[in-house]
């Protein structure tokens, strides 16, 4: 199953990347290599594809770019290789969103799966005790929000398929890897077990519980299911202001459940 992202962009797989349609802007992709993420893997010396995923930060329709800039919003797209990294499925290394100078705090991210399947993994902190930990299983069209300040990683849930997703984030984004790397990864490692993904605890954290769940509908943010989040922005450019100004949703972040 594939999902219409709401504008003319197509993932490519050999090599990983994106093709942009007419009147669509987008950069040369940034490739994340296996060597760049080894420190956060369960088996740092494992084999896997040389390029694990490709990122295109700041994509969209030419007509929409000014609205994005005025709201300090950026739309990014990422596509992942198939397969495994040793015993783990293909995944990102895990990070926390750094404090953005524009708003003075860590910011959230709104994911939307386009193709393949994912676990959007997140934990409240990357300190010794990670707090609440969630792995949200998401399929094409599903939306998942990662709150400000949470450590998170994207995991390919079906290793036979490429995973592609889009996401709203702040324009002056930054990634903080220090605490995750200090603990040699996130608090729960995904493991390929025949045709399913299991999770095992990372011994470098204190004991925690992982909740594996389905996505939910974020009615409190006014986000509608079944309509691409890019299209929802076009219809209402202020809808995702809580991404670039997370303090607007301060009460919603308290005891947040993804």
Automatic annotation (TrEMBL):
One cellular component (GO) term of this entry: cytoplasm
Q: Does the keyword Ribosomal protein apply?
A: no
The EC number(s) attached to this protein equal 5.3.1.9
Mention one GO biological process in which this protein takes part, according to its record. glycolytic process
Q: According to its UniProt record, in which pathway does this protein act? A: Carbohydrate degradation; glycolysis; D-glyceraldehyde 3-phosphate and glycerone phosphate from D-glucose: step 2/4
List each copy of the Glucose-6-phosphate isomerase prokaryote domain by range: 50-198
- One Pfam family hit: GPI
Family according to the record: Belongs to the archaeal-type GPI family.
Q: Report the catalytic activity.
A: alpha-D-glucose 6-phosphate = beta-D-fructose 6-phosphate
Q: Which UniProt keywords apply?
A: Gluconeogenesis, Glycolysis, Isomerase
Q: Which SUPFAM superfamilies match?
A: RmlC-like cupins
Q: Indicate what this protein is called per its UniProt record.
A: glucose-6-phosphate isomerase
| One GO MF term attached to the UniProt entry | glucose-6-phosphate isomerase activity
Membrane-spanning residues: none
Which top EC class is named for this enzyme in its record?
isomerase
């Amino acid at each position: 199953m594939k999902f219409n992202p709401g504008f003319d962009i197509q993932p490519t797989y050999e090599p990983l990347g994106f093709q942009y349609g007419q009147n669509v802007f987008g950069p040369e992709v940034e490739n994340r290599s296996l060597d760049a993420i080894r420190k956060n893997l369960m088996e740092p010396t494992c084999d896997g594809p040389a390029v694990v995923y490709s990122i295109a930060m700041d994509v969209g329709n030419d007509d929409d770019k000014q609205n994005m800039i005025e709201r300090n919003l950026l739309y990014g797209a990422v596509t992942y290789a198939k397969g495994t990294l040793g015993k783990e499925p293909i995944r990102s290394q895990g990070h926390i969103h750094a404090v953005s100078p524009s708003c003075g705090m860590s910011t959230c991210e709104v994911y939307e799966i386009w193709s393949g399947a994912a676990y959007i993994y997140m934990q409240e902190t990357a300190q010794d005790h990670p707090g609440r930990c969630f792995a949200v299983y998401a399929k094409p069209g599903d939306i998942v929000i990662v709150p400000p300040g949470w450590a998170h990683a994207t995991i390919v849930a079906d290793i036979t398929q490429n995973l592609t997703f889009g996401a709203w984030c702040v324009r002056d984004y930054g990634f903080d890897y220090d605490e995750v790397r200090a603990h040699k990864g996130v608090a729960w490692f995904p493991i390929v077990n025949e045709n399913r993904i299991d999770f095992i605890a990372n011994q470098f954290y204190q004991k925690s519980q992982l909740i594996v769940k389905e996505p939910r509908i974020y009615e409190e943010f006014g986000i509608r299911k079944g309509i691409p989040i890019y299209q929802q922005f076009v219809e209402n450019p202020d809808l995702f202001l809580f991404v670039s100004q997370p303090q607007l949703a301060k009460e919603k972040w308290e005891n947040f459940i993804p």
